[in-house]
Design goal:
This protein is an alpha+beta fold. It has 4 helices and 11 strands.
């Protein structure tokens, strides 16, 4: 058995992530070059990189926003319904929350339509207080001082739908972006659309979610 695993193990040890990729088109494949001059060759490439998108995918319908979240210490005495429910309040700004197996409450929201305000530590502290207060007002649960707080940018589109399409000028390179807060759903749709495109088959959702 060790002999059978030795070759894959060597391949795994040699594998690493590359960043700052620049795509180039080839007739039957694509080449991705890094800023260090390294080149990766593949039949197709899919960029699903969150708010860091390719320059070729820049469009007025897509922009980057900021969001905040927190997690409490493990709590006791939580309402039973909170242990089995993911809640998303349909408000503006919205509030979402859920619990984990340890009894922590994870909550977030308070989005701002700005790409870089998430980097302000003072704003993070203020946003965490607002999220905790909204959680208390809605559920009666007081979490005290959060165990963890964090913030991040994420990308959205004007119509709330993601962009899932070929990168302009590159038939073998795809981009999936603009998920907003619906990555679990949109990532599956993206996988279906791109798999069909690579296989040369149509997908009923492709036109709706095209580059725009």
């Amino acid at each position: 058995m060790p002999r059978a695993l030795s070759a894959p193990a060597r391949q795994l040890q040699a594998t690493r992530c590359a960043s700052a990729l620049k795509p180039s088109a080839i007739t039957t494949a694509i080449a991705l070059s890094t800023s260090k001059g390294e080149v990766l060759v593949a039949g197709h490439a899919v960029f699903c990189t969150g708010y860091e998108y390719l320059p070729q995918m820049k469009t007025k319908s897509h922009h980057v926003t900021s969001t905040w979240a927190l997690a409490s210490e493990p709590l006791t005495g939580l309402p039973d319904w909170m242990r089995d429910t993911i809640t998303w309040e349909a408000a503006e700004p919205y509030l979402y929350f859920r619990t984990d197996e340890a009894g922590r409450v994870i909550a977030g929201g308070e989005d701002e339509d700005a790409a870089d305000t998430n980097s302000d530590p003072k704003k993070l502290a203020r946003k965490a207080k607002v999220i905790a207060r909204k959680l208390r007002d809605l559920t009666g649960v007081k979490i005290g001082k959060p165990a963890y707080t964090w913030s991040a940018p994420f990308s959205v589109t004007d119509d709330g739908l993601p962009i899932i399409d070929r990168v302009p000028g590159f038939d073998r390179i795809f981009s999936v972006m603009g998920f907003g807060g619906n990555g679990i759903t949109f990532s599956m749709i993206g996988a279906q659309i791109i798999a069909a495109a690579i296989a040369g088959k149509p997908d009923p959702d492709a036109e709706i979610l095209r580059y725009r």
